[in-house]
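Predict the 3D structure for this chain.
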Amino acid sequence: MSDLSAPGFPEEEVRQRARAGAAAAFPPPGEYGQVLFGAEQRGGRQPDAGPDPLDALRITPPVFMPQRLARLIDLGREPDYRDVELTTPVGGFTSALPVYVSALGSTRAAGGDLGLALSRQAGALGLPMVIGENVVPVNGYGRLGEAADRALLGRLRAYAEELPDGQGGVVVQQSTEDADAEVWNLVYSDPAALPLLATGRLAFELKLGQGAKPGLGGMTVLDAESAARLGDRYGLDDVFGDGRLLRSSTPGTFTAEILRQQIRLMRNNFPRARVWVKLHPGRDVAEAARVAAEAGADAVTVDGAEGGTGWAPGAFPAQVGLPLAECLRRLAAAGPPPCLLVSGRIWEGGRAVKSLALGARAVGLGRAALLATAEDPQAGLERFVQCLALELRLLISALGKYTPAALDQDDVWSSQFPGNAGTG
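Done. Predicted structure below.
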């Protein structure tokens, strides 16, 4: 190492790349399965990026509250936060809150007992839950001797066993490798899924991208044995030089017409299942959402650049994709789809209420759901959601409103968004 220095320049990062080569584009591989990666509180790894624009918004209760008066007349007494009704239609399902569990796929952090515990608690709460991509190609479906705790069928059963009547639903995501494994066909024809189908609580989600890695497919780290088993299904790259390999899914190729045809194919081939579409925070997100909704999607999910992941190149969470607030602004300007779902560092009531006020029907819990479950596999997610529900009721009531659907852009304000957020 020389004594050359460069004050004010990211010298240590450059030196690390000189030492490690291509491996330095990723976090340390030893952190895979233990650390959830995504944008940080203040703009990821860019210390000068400033606060998250969604966090910068203020929730702005008015003085005059005609909806509170209407609620008072309806109840025959003064209403309070306990009179807020949080039950919300979400993508063809009924959810106990305007909340769903975001896609958690084959990453090691969501596998095993933790994934099953999360599924059980999400089911008991009556929240829709998305089973993410690559579970079947990597861990199997669960009927041919695969480890039940990591297979897709294990998560589906754990969720369904706890699900209250009339609430929740399972959403099975599919990407390119899942399509090769015919994941939707497996689920749609499985007797274990029949109760969900019969009650209208099964959906399939077409994945076009994800917030943490816009334009890329899913990525994980594999040991040599797993890589040998999966090498014919995925791209493998020896970037770490220690026996572990980078496993990459293909992101898929879409145009507006391809998306329309895919949705029509889903509706034709799986008529009893709901259709969801997941978009990454691309610059044309409003156009893509419009195409999906017009083609018949029951829900369009937009994953902001703040979205978390099991594994991502370091440059992506900090520098790639639109922030969730900007996605919401563009969608609002173009006219959002009838059922817009959003995710991206949602963990408390304020950020959730701002997203709902800016046009979302519900918000997704990803890293928050995993961390809460890891804290207490028996009831951590349930207690976390209890706290979130209380915050939602307090904030919505403070605005003089009593359902999430009543929120609108007048309920938020920021000097960073003149003319785009409410003023009254």
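Residues 380-398 form the longest helix (19 residues).
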